[in-house]
Structure formats: structure tokens, C-alpha cells
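Support case: user asked for a sample of complex input and structure output to validate their parser. Sending the pair below.
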Amino acid sequence: MSENLIKGLLLIVPLVLLLGLVLPRRPWRVPVAVVGGALVALTLPWVAPAGPLSYSVSFAVMGSLYALLSLGLNTQWGYTGHLNFGIAAFFAIGAFTSALVTMEAPTGLAAQYTQMAFGLNQPFLVGVVAAAVASAILALIVAVPVLRLRMDFLAIATIGIAEVVRLIFQNERWLANGPQPLRGIPRPGYCLFQSEGCEGAPAWLNALFEPLGTRDYSLLYLLITVVILAVLYVFIERACRSPWGRVLRAVRDEEASAAMNGKNVTYMRIQSFVVGAVIMGVAGALYAHHMATIDYSHFHALFATFLVWVMLMLGGSGNNRGAIIGGFIVWGVWSGTAFLAGAMEPALALISEDLPGRAPYIRWMLVALMLAVIVLYRPQGLFREEKRVSRYLAD
Amino acid sequence: MSVVGQAASRQQRTGEWLRARMQTRGFLWSVLGVLLLGVLVLAAFQGVSAQRLISLTAWGLMLGGIIGLGSIGLTLVYGVVKFPNFSHGALVTLGAYLTLAVMAVLPQGPRLLPFSFGWELIAGLLIAMPVVGLVSVAVDKVVYRRLRTQGAHLVLFAMASLAMEFFLRSWIYLIWGSDFHFYYSGRDNPALDLILGIRVRADQLFIVALAIVLVAAVYLLLERTKIGKAMRATADNPELAQVRGINTERVIAWTWMVGGALAAAGGVMYGLSSQLRPEMGFWLLLPMFAAVIMGGIGNPWGALAAAMIIGIVHQVSGAFINPTYGPGVAFILMVITLLIRPQGLFGKGGG
């Protein structure tokens, strides 16, 4: 089979799923998504040059990761009103847990350069599950003492937990190589793209990926990421349209009357906080395997917390589809402003010779302004929350 | 009532009694006291000499002064405007950098012995304080006032303040870059020998003195002046204050002015004791919030006292754990306070 055909086939599923996630809930959603996604997937490899194609696939992987974070925040903030300013903590815990579970502990000379508490050498999916569990445990530790109090205390406490988690990964060399980056996190199915192929895989699978090189790997990773995003989206969407989701909203909007109706308010809050944290942990695991090299500085409050808030607020709190669309839009703006900052450098050099090197910080200013403008002028975001969420009521 | 029922209700009563006792101020004080003592004992077991422990405690008080200066402003704003201002960290940083900018313009005078700084730092501080105050008033006029008129929920204020934190910090990065700066690079700063073999730098004494003077000034402002009384009235009940003819918008502007000025003072002192980095205020944010919550929201004396406790535990625990975990220590103290008594050491209500 030709190289382009295989690329197209790999792109079909992610593109169909992404279109399906983004399009509105109308009867034509599924057919349009299937036909449109397949058409785009099968023409793109021929039309687009290899460089831009692989860039846009990487872009889509990161966009899906941020969409996942935004989805997790939506369960916490959108449905229950938890002010979690420490997304970075759950993201980092997920990433490092999955890395430690899937990596092989270094031996011999390499052990002097890379220190880690353990390396279990488990498959990718085990790492993802471990990341979800670790993130849930951290969420419980935060949630139980703080969630029965006022909402602003949760915001302060989560900022604190993000800072503490970052400090731990920065200082504890024995845990996950401390200030040094943790390299060589295995990528699922990466060997298929190497010239010798995978050892355990059937021969036809190795033969299928024969024409592709390692630089095409992100195509397969996009497939994995988008499938996980879609599964979690369906899960959250169902949960939020079930009685469980309606109790969460009742707790958010009218805590007293929810309690009067026999709902355990604190318990419900803890549940939704943990569910959101699990999704963030999964996003962290996916991030670790995408980057293959991670260190504490990747989990900066700006990239891992603030940007996600801008995404959800833009997309619309309380709307899962909005959360995903917001994730992609803001990630697009953020990536696009990198080019903008680059283009502005000559003009900035005229003002001061130091400025061009600081151009990246203009992006900070832009996203900060974006959030301020959304909060001031359109706090409900692009897509409003759907008020009627029962399957038995006509929309 | 059956015997079993009586036993059950007595048990329940015991539980309630226990909980009521646990939520008192005294219990929180004793837990914090035991913790402080435990840290000291642990340090002593690690082979830290008594003399060094006393020195560490003294340094803790100095660090507490820095945290305190920042948290007095934070607690005032929290009390009057009723939301956690996450941009306070950026205001702290801005104060430190503005002083640096003023000092670059002024001629460098002789140092004021025994301190390491000269008049130009004082001048910078005196200029930076009102300027940062005005910046925070401006941010309030542009952002928070609009939210107030909309009657927005507390969480939208918190989110807007987080946006302002990153907005102000991006300006600091753009103007001064991400490198470290010093007020006086390469100037020696010898320690003074005090009684009991305590060695502290004169600058550290200055920091504590400044913190106490400023908190006393805030206390006088709140207790003795008309605007201070109006602030307290607005903090207690904004509607009632308005009914009594208090211009709450003016009161809020004054609160931001004072809060921003105190944040700037904290930033300058932090910069004097270590160095200037764009992230310095964000690192101070967690200890400052811990002090605000421990001291009771809206209580300047409480914030200063809690900051001193945090400073001491931070420094003494640094003898046996990695000192970079300072924010973590503050975090643990804050969580203990939230668990036992969310109103804090000096807050109203409860026992």
C-alpha cells in the first residue's frame, strides 16, 4: 500500500471523531462527521506537504490533550462550581506516574544519569490507569479537608497543592530525576514505525506500517489520544445527563435545597472533584507519552492551569462540547501567537534591543487579556450551558 | 428512652462536645504551639545547636515580617472587597521592580550604616508604594468595579484577579526581563552580634521594624480615621454602610490604595533580603494567603502574627528539610487551620 493511503487511513478515525465532538447535536451530526472526516482524511496526505501535515497532527494531539484537561475542569467547575486553580498538580501527577509505571528502571551507567524511584516496565494502558488512580488519590487528599468550606479556600488550597507538587518533582532527584528531565518515556506502538518493526506484533501489522518512518508516529498517537478523548467525553456527557449530573447542578446552584432533599452535598462535591481530577490525570499520562521527555518546568501554572481556564471560560462552562471547542481554539491562538511574536521581533527591536528576546511574554499578556474580557463581557462563554439535560425531554 | 438509645445519644453528645472543643481558638493555638515545639525538637535531634536554633527563630521573625507586609494588604482587600486577590503577588513584584527603576535614576548615595542600603532605596520605596497603590486602584476601576456593578459571583472576581496576575507579570517580564536583579550587587552585608549569640543583619531588623510600624499605621487608620471606620463598616455590611451615607466605591478605592502600597513595601523588603525575580511575588502568594487565613480574614494584626509563625516554622524546619519547601510548610499550616478552625486564630465566631 502506498504511504499516503496508510496516512489517510490512520487519519480517518480521529478526524471523524473530532468532527463528531465539535458539531452540534443535530440529526445530521453523525453522517456529516463520517463523510466529512473521511473525505478530509483521504485527501489531506496528497494535498498537504509532509512538513505542515506532521505539524498539524502534532497540533491536533496537543489540542486534544488540552480539550481533555478542559473537559476535566468542566466537571469540577462547570457542573459543580469548584474553583480549581491547581490543574497543574493533577496534570503533573498523571504524567510522572505514567512515566514511572511504563519506563524500565535504568541500570548500570545510565542509572547515574537518570534516577527514578521505580520503573515497572508496564504497557501504556496500565500507565494511563495508574495515572488516573494517582490523580484520584491526590484529589481525595485535597478535597476531603477543603471541600466542606467556602469556595475561595479551595482556590487557594489548589494553588498551594500545585506549587507543592511542582516543588517535589523539582527537588526530589530520587523520585523522577528531579531537576533533570526524565527521558525515554516509551511511546505506544512506536516500534511499528521503526525500520525493524515490532517484535511481538503480527507480520501483517509490521508490513502495513513498513512504508512509514518514525516522523509519522504522531498519526498513530493522534488516533490513540482522540479515541480516549471521545470515550471520556461520552462517559462525562452521559454522567452529567444522568441523575448524578443533575444533583451536581443542584448542589452548585442551590446547596441548601439539595441538602434538604436528602443529598449529601459534601460527598457529591468530592465525587465530582475526583472525577475531574481523574480526567486531568489521564491527560497528564497522554502528555508524557507524547513528549517522551518531561520535567517539572512543563507543569508551569501558566501552561497547565491558566490556559485551561481560558479554554473552558471561552468554550462555555457547563457545556462539554464548548469545553472541547474552547480547548482547540485557545490552543490555536496560543500556537498562532508564537508566529505573531516572531513576526513582531523586528518592530520590537526598534523600541529596545532587549525586547525581541522577551516577545514570548506578549503571548502571556494576550491570554490574560482574553480571560479578563471573557469574564467581563461574556462569562457564559461561546456555548451556553444546556439547562434541560434529560433524555426524555425534547430540546 | 431505652438504655441503648440513651447511650447512643450520650455518645453523639460526646462527639459534638469534642468537635466544639476542637473548633476553639485555644485548640488551634495549642496545635500550632505543639507543631512549633515539635519542629524545634526535631531540629535539636538533628544536632542543631541551641544557639543556631535561636538564630533560626530570629531569622524566622524577619521572614515573617516580609510575609506579613504582603499579607496585611491582602487581608485588608479580602475583608473589604470580599474576594481572594490572586494578583497580589504581581503587585508585590511590581513594587520591588519599580523601586529598582527609581534607584537606577537616582544618584547612588552613601550607605546608611549599619544597613546595607542608602537613601535611594528609601526614596524608591516611598515612590513605589503610592504608584503600586494607584495601579491597583486602576485595575479595580477597569475590571473589578464592572464586575461589582453586574453583581457577579465571587468566583468571577477570583478568576479576573488570576488574569490580572498574569497580565501584570507579563509587563514585568517585558520591561525588566526574566533575569535576576539586585538592589546592590556585590555589597557586603555583615551580620551584627546581638545578645545570646544571635547574629542577624541590620537589614533584617529594619524589615521587622517596618512591618510593625506599617501594621500599627494600618491599625490607627482603621480605628482612628473616618475612612478607616468606613472601611470597617463596608467590610461588615456594604449595603448598610451605603444606607448610612458611606460612599463605598471611595472606600474600596482607598482599600486598594493601602493594599497595593503595602504589597509594594513587602516586595521591596523581599528584594532587599534576597534578589528580584519576576516570579518572586507568586512564590510569596501561598505564604501570604496562609497568613491571611490563619490570622482571620480582614485582621491585619492577625495576619502579621500568623506570618511570624509561618516564618519561624519555615526557617527552623529548613534546618532538617530542604529549605526550598518553604511554600509547602506554609501550605501545611494553612490546611491545619482550615481543618480545625477556618475562621483563623483571630477570626470572629465560634469559641
